[in-house]
Amino acid sequence: MITLGIIGVVAAMTLPTLIQKHNEKVMVSKLKKSYSIMQQAYLMAVRDKGTPDQWGLIDNVNTDQDVDDINDVNNFLYHMKDYLKITKYCGSKAEGCWVDTKGLHGHPAFNSESRKIYSKALLADGSQILTIVANPSCTSQFGQVKDICGYYRIDVNGKQPPNTMGKDTFTFYITKTRIVPAGSQMEEGGSYSFTNSCKDAKTHEGRGCTAWVLYNENQDYLHCSDLSWDGKKTCK
Question: According to the per-residue pLDDT averaged within each range, which of 1-10, 61-70, 111-120, 143-152 is highest?
Fold first, then answer.
């Protein structure tokens, strides 16, 4: 009986950790698959329609969110939707395509449903996506990431929790010719770099976690705060 009791205690202590690790591996796999799908869709759109600076986009970031001239045609998703398997297209007006998102630090990150600057959709794999135009001329730059037109965020498991940046919700830059995960070594030192926006899960929002998950295939920043591109890649 004593032995069984000890086994039960050990199982109770280790099982939550095993479940968490499994869930993190699932998120890594989902993100990698999503990245591949989006990259292919974007490259096909560019092949057929030219680069985004030719799409007639409107700067959503520096425009009043309630102006009437922000239409679906002025955002990325409208031009990419024919290359994606979409189950519901909300565009910039309809609701029901995004759940409010929290930051890693636990505070609200953003609410997209009431903002026209976001164009949104639900994808066939269960994920939800929103896109936003930051520079219609595609001339923005963060660190060494150049020719940025805007970005998109994707919640890889859709409306299911935790709906949290860096856990199941991730940010990508849309550049003139390709999609780049946020937080890569190319933008270290910037506001949305891994060091400044992901490394410390207790204080950071989580926008800079995407590249870490894709390239290092873990979410260990959730468990320790001494990781870096030039140093430790896991908590072990």
Answer: 143-152
